[in-house]
Design brief:
With 77 residues, the chain is an alpha+beta fold. It contains three helices and four strands; from the N terminus they run E-E-H-E-H-H-E. This is Galactosyldiacylglycerol synthase.
């Protein structure tokens, strides 16, 4: 199962489904084919919420942001 990590601290955020990973990859701009790091912010999460993104994924990301305005995440299998 794919895992999400805080890209700055290396702390595990949690496990996500393949469908959740597919959503993240489809929504984010990749700098190169092997890019697995993404920058998120509160406005982006709100947009995803309005678009009907998976509530469990959004909750996980909001919790990881811990009241901050942004978060860098990376994923791995």
């Amino acid at each position: 199962m794919p895992q999400l990590f805080n890209a700055d601290t290396g702390a595990l955020i949690g496990e996500i489904s393949d469908a959740q990973l597919e959503f993240l990859v489809s929504q984010m701009e990749e700098e190169h084919a092997l890019d697995q790091d993404y920058y998120l912010n509160a406005d982006l999460l709100e947009t995803w919420h309005e678009q009907g993104a998976d509530p469990a994924l959004l909750e996980m990301l909001q919790k990881a942001m811990a009241g901050k305005e942004d978060l860098s995440v990376r994923w791995s299998r």
